[in-house]
Design goal:
With 174 residues, the protein is mostly helical. The protein has one domain (7-25, 49-170). It is built from seven helices and no strands. Helix 1 (7-24) packs antiparallel against helix 4 and helix 2 packs antiparallel against helix 7 (160-170). It is elongated, with a radius of gyration of 18 Å. The model has no long low-confidence stretch (mean pLDDT 91).
Length: 174
Amino acid sequence: MGAPVTAIHLLIIKVVADGIPGFSLSVEPVENDIMKNHPVRKNESIFNNGLLRRIIEISIVFTVATLIAIFVGRTYSIAIAETMTFVVLGWTTIIHMYNCRSEHSIFKLRFLSNTLLVTTTVVGAAILLLLVTLPLTQNLLDFVSLNFIQWIWVIALSIISLVYIEIKKFFNVF
């Protein structure tokens, strides 16, 4: 098996799942308790508040989800593994945008308070879905159709980061 995703697959994920929805986070409404945060000193690193640990932690979660997609997909075929990996990487990235909205649980936020984020993530997820299901794009990008069980795996693996971070936020350890 070569690379589970190609350079063009990664480029699509970066633009559709990461880039465009990422801009939507810039219009996220200010949190009500923002003034309770202490000011950051100008000579203080942005990593002093545990950001580096969180980046490493979520990277591990993303990696594990992706490796599981590859492993499960390979039990069917290499083409299934590549398709599952592409969708899991893309959808995990999109879903993670909701983790990035706030230090608070997504269940404490008004879901539609950032309609631009909702719109761009729904459109991004739909584009990724269409890329792996339409025959023309399947042929162009070397994807194959997934069966029901494979889609269940893709959905479950794609929400792992959301569940993981929500649990950490619930126990105030994120």
